[in-house]
């Protein structure tokens, strides 16, 4: 019926085309602006210094990576590179680059620009800047000169521009994350001229606060289908405009506005009022009412992990594996999935979704058993244990639709086995992530992860591949198992190695895997061609309105 209706409208659309075209050119028409309700404020707009979805959401519209993922899937396809191939030993990657591409400042994209970006990341100076390069640290492991918490041996070696459209990346060792990891938003390619002009590397730190340079705040310059226009912090809006010189399919709307609305109920009200066209991560309890109101609730496949982080640094009792196992035994994950997460969510036994190679039933399981939890606490001399439990506010994540409610349910389970819980609530971008991931102030915390690509290393390697302040432990056996898995070249060997690493991790309990869930995105019924993806990395240039 929808197809017949569209055919019937063809004549009317043809009559309206000239008016629509004039509006599209100026961005003045109601159907020429797509307004999306963002669940949180971006930290900044330089992809290399970000690791959260609300910062990546606008960045994905402005930047391109060498490779990307076919819309709606985890399958690779070309972006700024049209072809890529490794050497036999996996230590060299050759990219054939797309021709005729320009950055938003009019400068040409070429192999020299690619190498400038990789060299920039590798040679980044300053503990403050390096500490904010979370994804780079996880994938490339180290810098030319490690500072602060960075300690790894660099994977990156050098980059050569063989000619204008051939870039060769040389590595010190093979990395199983490639080529998929080349599609990470953090590894987006920026204009070298803009990076130099706006002092892009000047990240400073004062206490627990970070200050970012002019490039990251006001002049992000990529090659993507939209360009940066403004960030109005007072009115909480990020405005992008169409890049009419984009190398690929041009954006269908002249303006893209992200309206920051931290409260999920407020986002729902603004959708009903028509002040926004859609928003992400609606509450599962609202799916039916949103559909009844004529909206489209688009469900993504489950491709994430929610976990209860355990920091062993501050409380010596948490260094005892019996206590960590007791914490996992105390939590009723099935009830949590049923009551606090969307339909289709399931309790987790490990830190991988069940659709990623490396997931295995061989892990050591600690299913809900309050009596076993109490017994282990008693054995460890930890009866009456008191823990500081950090919970984020002012945010909704795909794995965590309502952090405060989820945190409350987990705290209740812990209290039921005799653990005293002091809940500390902090805004997501108002100190929470830095306190948890950089300063390690917490004993327990809620966090999670949506996969960037279908590789186990993107999950467990990101969490436990090296020492992190978030977890406060040093376990060479885990680090070695994950390093071995990441170095495997064939899919079969990689799968087996990650299964073995998963067993080691489950026995150590560095954190507690809680759930995986299928998040939704909701848009009004006049929004078309938005393609939901398991990676939650939707690109809005395809969206039409009206």
Structure overview:
With 546 residues, the chain is an alpha+beta fold. Among the domains are: 64-223, Dipeptide-binding Protein, Domain 1 (Dipeptide-binding Protein, domain 1, Alpha-Beta Complex), CATH 3.90.76; 304-516, Dipeptide-binding Protein, domain 3, CATH 3.10.105.10. The chain contains 18 helices and 23 strands. A 7-stranded mixed sheet has the order 10-11-12-1-13-21-14, with helices on both faces. Helix 11 (321-330) packs antiparallel against helix 13 and helix 17 (476-486) packs antiparallel against helix 18. The longest helix is centred in the last third of the chain and has 18 residues, at 491-508.
What would the keywords be for this entry?
546 residues, alpha+beta, Dipeptide-binding Protein, domain 1, Dipeptide-binding Protein, domain 3, seven-stranded mixed beta sheet, six-stranded mixed beta sheet, 18 helices, 32% helix, globular, disordered N terminus, Peptide/Ni-bd, ABC transporter substrate-binding protein, SBP_5_dom, transport, signal
Q: What percent of residues are in strands? A: 15-25%
Measured between the Cα atoms of the first and last residue, the distance is 17 Å
Shape: globular
Stated plainly, the CATH topology of the domain at 304-516 is called Dipeptide-binding Protein, domain 3
Low-confidence stretches: 1-27
CATH superfamily of the domain at 304-516: Dipeptide-binding Protein, Domain 3
Please report the first level of CATH classification, the CATH class of the domain at 304-516.
Answer: Alpha Beta
- On the 0 to 100 scale, the average pLDDT is 93
Q: Can you count the helices? A: 18
> What's the architecture of the domain at 304-516 in CATH terms?
Roll
The proportion of residues forming helix, as a percent range, comes to: 25-40%
Give me the Rg, rounded: 24 Å
Main beta sheet: strand number and arrangement? 7 strands, mixed
Number of DSSP-assigned strands: 23
Structural class: alpha+beta
* Strands side by side in the biggest sheet: 10-11-12-1-13-21-14
InterPro entries: Peptide/Ni-bd (IPR030678), SBP_5 (IPR039424), SBP_5_dom (IPR000914)
Keywords: Signal, Transport
Protein name: ABC transporter substrate-binding protein
Domain Solute-binding protein family: 76-468
